[in-house]
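Task: sequence design from structure.
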């Protein structure tokens, strides 16, 4: 099975076989492809988006736009992972606690409203990375149709482009808590600082970047091809002044550039954190 169309038909078939489902819809490329394939499968469904202080505002806006454009059966729900001690302490299982909270809510909705399964958007590449949220999938019996259909991240983007969906080239956008260094408590203040800092970077036109929160220090990761702009004196001054105003005491640039999941390096030598 080599062609993109065949891959997509395989995905649609997988979802059709799963039957009526609740879909965890974040507004990212992976869950958008799952939602589109679900629409094309013809099964009954409900797309659900969990919202908390860890959710980037831009993701909520993207979800709302896609709901309108695709005429989705959709619901926003509030989640409370940010109130839980095990999440706030921000160890290597943070993502597990977040997904566990979300999937518990989605399972409740599925059970009470007559849906057979809960679906989420992990792709084949995610199985090769440190993803503690995968255990939450297993714990709750959540299905990952992209994995079952053998679809990688690059194929997700290719399929969305083939289907004419504008979101195909959206940069990955994990929750705001992923910007906070392991061991630094996840507080409302820290989440707010990160969101404001990344909004400042977006206003400057940067696309592939992260503002990593190390307490009083902000470490900016930017894609290599975009990095030269940071050295423009006016741009650099705007970034520094803006992040100092937000509350950071130190503003640094990571010369290695943007690498998704780089924070996980902090876990490599720690024991008892991986699932």
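Answer:
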């Amino acid at each position: 099975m080599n062609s993109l169309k065949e891959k997509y038909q395989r995905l649609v078939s997988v979802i059709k076989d799963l039957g009526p489902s609740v879909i965890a819809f974040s507004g990212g490329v992976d869950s958008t492809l799952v939602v589109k394939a679900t629409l094309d499968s013809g099964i009954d469904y409900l797309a659900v988006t969990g919202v908390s202080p860890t959710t980037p505002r831009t993701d909520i806006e993207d979800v709302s736009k896609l709901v309108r454009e695709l005429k989705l059966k959709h619901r926003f729900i509030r989640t409370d992972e940010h109130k839980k001690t095990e999440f706030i302490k921000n160890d290597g299982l943070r993502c597990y606690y977040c997904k566990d909270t979300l999937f518990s809510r989605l399972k409740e909705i599925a059970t009470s409203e007559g849906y057979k399964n809960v679906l989420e958007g992990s792709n084949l590449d995610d199985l090769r990375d440190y993803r503690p949220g995968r255990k939450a999938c297993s714990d709750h019996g959540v299905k990952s149709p992209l994995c079952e259909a053998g679809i990688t991240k690059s194929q997700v983007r290719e399929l969305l482009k083939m289907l004419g969906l504008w979101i195909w080239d959206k940069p990955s956008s994990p929750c705001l808590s992923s910007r906070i260094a392991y061991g630094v408590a996840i507080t409302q203040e820290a989440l707010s600082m990160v969101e404001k800092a990344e909004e400042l970077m977006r206003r400057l036109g940067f696309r592939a970047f992260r503002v990593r929160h190390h307490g009083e220090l902000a470490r900016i990761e930017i894609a290599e091809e975009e990095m030269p702009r940071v050295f423009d004196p006016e741009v650099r001054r705007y970034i520094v002044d803006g992040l100092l105003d937000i509350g950071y005491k130190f503003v640094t640039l990571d010369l290695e550039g943007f690498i998704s999941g780089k924070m996980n390096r902090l876990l490599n030598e720690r024991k008892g954190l991986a699932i």
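The chain has two domains: 4-169, 176-259.
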